[in-house]
Model the fold of this input.
Amino acid sequence: MGVTIAFANQKGGVGKTTTAINVAAYLGAQHGLKVLVVDDDSQANATSSLGLEHPSKSLYDVLAGGVPAESVILPTEESGVYLLPSSADLAGAEVEMIDFPGRERVLSEALEPLKERFDMIFIDTPPSLGLLTINALVASDMVLIPLQSEYLALEGLSRLWDTIRRIRRVLNPNLGLLGILLTMYDRRTTLSKNVEEEVRKYFPKETFKTVIPRSVRLSEAPSFGMSIRMYAPSSSGALAYQQLAAEFLARVKSIFGQTRLNPGSIAAERRS
Done:
């Protein structure tokens, strides 16, 4: 059974989508894993970043219409990476789900049949702490928090942490923190260094050793519908995400063990 990880932060523009897409790309291409990216944001940035736009069906149909998630999944150009796409329609899902019984568990129930098919399921969440994000946290084993290297981002971290603790108490007691990832890091500035020191002071074990630098190439890649691995494989952003993917996988294995991952699944599927 695969591991489900939410990429969450209520602040927009911190690198949630960029991280989910690029870690998935390296895990698929270099580590032989089969990864499903679930685009849980009506802005559909993960969908367009993987080169797919205007899908005939999307996560909205799954959450609000009861369509089986398996019938909505699409392959991507990234080796081993699949997508459960989003669309602008998803913006209405939160309103429509309000009266659903067990509305916080709709996504969890939709993804349950897929866990045997994928080594990992990544959920890219919207920049809010609304019902879609809550659904993602309830459906996940772990959460990864991308944190922009600026002081205002630290203020939002405490609010997100409070939400995670409430989810643990009421809806998903097994939800764990996989780690905090510093993004948009500029080694030339004192600000980035000070933010890093502060985060590592309070979250020494949780903070990933790898930091993601500010990078023009990382900003450009989504407009071409590519991961940084395909768009600019020798760039600083690509090297950072390659390193992060290895650290990420080692951390997942240390928590869940090898039994939760099936690295041969891609090769087996291709043979069949």
